[in-house]
């Protein structure tokens, strides 16, 4: 080695690189201008010869081996930088020409680093992870990861024989971020990060920001370009941005893609099952699911977590790849197609998301750089004893940034229409699922997780600040106040909250034998006492049909399947009428008998049997009823949208209520009978005089009922009932829910008359009297006066009668006053005096009809 080159060598630094303990390889590797020329150094283990080829001239310069571990250096007599390539010969005789990864600048700006450190870099996913790109005309992949306490981080994969010495990453100041651009890599390559801890222990980690992963049980990340897909849902996105979700219909079909429908497992040549072949592809399942959803009348699908997860039995709730759709069903482009297709069919897609905890898998986020990076170091704060998972350190800005950016990522890159946040209650309480001594109080001595509360407010503010119509939904099972309140008012900022209280109470009520339901009537009506405290979604979710809880039809009382179905139809009918958006888990709309099994397809063959087919038809009818009547969704969160007609029929186990929209004529009347008693002539109060037509009855024969319906329109009568002036009399079948449309009397449209006739309210026309007077636009009556003249006469007579009525009232008031004065001079019993006063008041306010 020449003396001038030898003098430029940093032998301590070279040793650090050779032993792969350096966090700043760019300090030595790559091109460096010196007083003596252009110094180029590289570390390529297993290389026996390396030459530098200047791309501008094609001239080559042999590099000298400074260390047998593969460290080469050359000093080129130049006064400026120039592009070059490395021509490498390996010990196995193969050769390769490659661009030097350490000759490319970082993509991070000082602003990027400051924002990430503050936890406000909401598009950090554009920097972190693996991004195929072209820099200075060179194609390759840019890698970036956060590992603040790591001694060294390298990119490893098949492309470098998983050798952590080949591509050590450059640490950017004190940010904890490592980055490197590797030329020549393309989408589809697998990779991991080799993280060397401060104790010198190397670990292989999947990319926390990776866009794709290998199919389990393999755990490597896969390079993928997620920016080249051509979306076709512009109209949907535009419409969504202008929407008002709280006033619009929302019928959610909750789906687990891995078990909604399955293929038979394929086998290899040896007869062994090929794992993964049982799943439907994203592109394959999209049209099948969309057809079913549209047929049944659902507006949205909610997918159990599609983020990458290693364990099928976790249903996706133990996530390791937060930025990667699971490879079980295809690649990122395929999932984008799925979302795009759903939007093209007019179906919204809500994604389940799990920011509450993460698993301890060695390739995941746990102890990412040898220290507690994403989780709390204190196990009393950082561990879930019940689930065996780890809790995020929400107070660390970079961790908060990771999660907030992730929620935005799914809305931005995959056009998600909503994020349903799992297990929010476990985030809000420090003692969730813990015993005394297992948790640490906050600074005020309470059990509230103040850092998590701030995180949720921060997330909702940023997410909703985009104003693109996407919604945030919380699964919060406690009575934490203002979950759907505005952050500026002290709320958490969610758009909707699952109504777990209603679900638990109503399920408990429905489990009771009908005879005993009268003793649990409060479980049926209690939810309306707090119905407007939050923007609720009524749910029968996957959590209610697993772990021995039974399917929905399995929860119902009854000795036969038909009796159970009768109960379930009534339950679904009541749910449809109750204020709040709706969610139903797959399989429960056709009354699957068995609990949900994530390892098997739904039992679609059951729909060949009458009970299940009729249940499916009934739910379809309910859904379409919901969609076609604004009263069932327009005022879900306005007390004016609901009114009890009677919620005191505890002995009869019945409830009667109405739902209203912004238009009076769209009012709906619900009558729900949860007992086995038949009511042939049941009178009930109605909100106004008019016609009441039954538009759905769970006891209809087509749904498997007895056929005890109300086929004729019911005209209300002025009979006071249920503290209302008008009422109707109907038939009520046992264990049934019936729905009536309500047409106010004053808004009834006149019947269509025969051609050539005209009708006037309360006026007899010549045609009606049988005369043949000449017809003209004045529409004369039989007495020869026009309607206008007659109405004028009536008005004059009305004024005259009004004056007489006023005189009468004045006289009555005077007599009443005199009577009261006489009574006050005598010893009169209080009750009699009170009666006389009431009579006097009635007389003084009594209306006198003009005709009388």
Automatic annotation (TrEMBL):
Which Pfam family, an example, fits this chain?
Answer: Alpha-amylase_C
* InterPro entries linked to this entry: A-amylase/branching_C (IPR006048), Branching_enzy (IPR037439), GH (IPR017853), GH13_cat_dom (IPR006047), GlgB (IPR006407), GlgB_N (IPR054169), GlgB_N_E_set_prok (IPR044143), Glyco_hydro_13_N (IPR004193)
Q: Which residues form the active site?
A: 422 (nucleophile), 475 (proton donor)
Q: What catalytic activity does the UniProt entry give for this protein?
A: Transfers a segment of a (1->4)-alpha-D-glucan chain to a primary hydroxy group in a similar glucan chain
Show the segment(s) annotated as Disordered.
Answer: 750-789, 818-852
Please name the source species: Candidatus Enterocloster faecavium
Family statement drawn from the similarity comment of this UniProt entry: Belongs to the glycosyl hydrolase 13 family. GlgB subfamily.
GO BP annotations, alphabetical order? glycogen biosynthetic process
Report one GO cellular component.
cytosol
Question: What is the role of this chain?
Answer: Catalyzes the formation of the alpha-1,6-glucosidic linkages in glycogen by scission of a 1,4-alpha-linked oligosaccharide from growing alpha-1,4-glucan chains and the subsequent attachment of the oligosaccharide to the alpha-1,6 position.
| Protein name as catalogued | 1,4-alpha-glucan branching enzyme
Class of this enzyme: transferase
EC number(s) reported in the record: 2.4.1.18
Q: What is the lineage of its organism?
A: Bacteria, Bacillati, Bacillota, Clostridia, Lachnospirales
Biased composition regions of type Basic and acidic residues, renumbered to the chain: 765-778
Any idea where the Glycosyl hydrolase family 13 catalytic domain is? 254-620
MF term (GO), any: 1,4-alpha-glucan branching enzyme activity
UniProt keyword list: Carbohydrate metabolism, Glycogen biosynthesis, Glycogen metabolism, Glycosyltransferase, Transferase
